Amino acid sequence: VQLVESGGGLVQPGGSLRLSCAASGFTFSRYGMSWYRQAPGKERELVASISSLGVSTNYADSVKGRFTISRDNPKNTMYLQMNSLKPEDTAVYYCNSKIISKDYWGKGTLVTVSS
Question: In the chain, what percentage of residues exceed pLDDT 90?
Answer without folding.
Answer: 98
